[in-house]
Design a protein that fits this description.
By secondary structure, this protein is of the alpha/beta class. The chain is built from 12 helices and 8 strands. It has one domain: TIM Barrel. The N and C termini lie far apart (about 40 Å). The strands form 2 sheets. Strands 1-2-3-6-7-8 form a 6-stranded parallel sheet.
């Protein structure tokens, strides 16, 4: 499989991970350049899963676009082009630790691998994302977001199951960010998001995220509607920027998510940054003990 085969080849000039210095104006803005704050792309893929770029390629795209990059490849046992086992997850983190990059992972709610990750492995991630790539219906049927097969249910019946899965995801999954919150199965994508995501469903979703302390990703690839993002903001849910990039054209392109956040008067410094806001992985607790 491509993700596994590229582990040996995915190498460039290694750099140790470090915490960027605080901005000289002492505003608390995390910054790697002397000319100001940088947005963080918390969601990008490499050849470790289904991306086209190596880690070095992702970092090059991020530098070119004036963005602080991260790598958050798919870590799920059911995917072909993904990190599929605990041992592969260790190897993935070993490789990422050779670079100055935020080390993330995107885990699928319906998959079992995230439940199998030991604490010592979890603590090596700077942040983790969770995705609703599969939704369990009340009858036990699994609906995949990228399958053209759709069950014999109405859109409303599916959406009720989707929100129920999201609520359970928020209670059970120890992640920092809900990736592409408005991602829905292919069959439903012809419907306006504002109709499928009723205000009552939005309220339930943001309430669950707020209670769990999970950030809402403004995805550049699966763009959420403004009302949903505003509702999350008003409920105290932190917002996160994500390109969900898989190619050089996509990686680190967070211009739209950043513009939407700013249109809602979200201060740049409040956008999710693992180095500034920490994570549920325990990575930054370990750093504090060492320092």
């Amino acid at each position: 499989m491509r993700g596994r085969a590229t582990r040996v080849a995915c190498a460039a000039i290694p750099r140790a991970f470090h915490r960027p210095p605080e901005h000289p104006n002492d505003s608390g803005v995390t910054n790697e350049r002397p000319d100001g704050w940088l947005p963080v792309d918390c969601h990008a893929h490499t050849t470790f899963s289904d991306g086209e770029l190596t880690v070095a390629g992702v970092l090059a795209c991020a530098r070119e676009r004036g963005v602080r990059g991260s790598v958050s490849d798919h870590i799920s046992s059911y995917m072909d082009n993904a990190v599929t086992t605990v041992d592969e997850t260790r190897a993935y983190l070993d490789a990422l630790e050779q670079y100055d990059v935020l080390r993330g992972g995107e885990f699928c709610w319906h998959d079992s691998l995230w439940r199998e990750i030991p604490d010592d492995v979890a603590r090596r991630f700077t942040h983790r994302l969770g995705s609703l790539h599969g939704i369990w219906l009340p009858n036990g049927e699994l609906v995949h977001a990228f399958s053209r097969r759709f069950p014999n249910v109405t859109p409303d019946e599916y959406m009720e199951a989707h929100v129920a899965n999201l609520e359970r995801f928020a209670r059970e999954m120890p992640v920092d960010v809900l990736a592409h919150p408005t991602l829905l199965p292919l069959t439903l994508r012809r419907h306006p998001l504002e109709e499928l995501w009723t205000e009552e469903r939005e309220e339930r979703a943001v309430g669950a995220l707020a209670a769990a302390g999970i950030a809402f990703e403004i995805s550049n690839r699966y763009r959420p509607h403004e009302r949903f993002v505003r509702r999350a903001r008003n409920a105290g849910v932190r917002l996160s920027l994500g390109s969900d990039g898989h190619t050089a054209e996509q990686v680190a392109d967070v211009a739209y998510p950043l513009a939407l956040a700013r249109s809602l008067a979200v201060p740049d410094e409040e956008l999710y940054d693992p180095l500034r806001h920490g994570s549920r992985t325990g990575f930054f607790n370990r750093l504090r003990r060492v320092s």
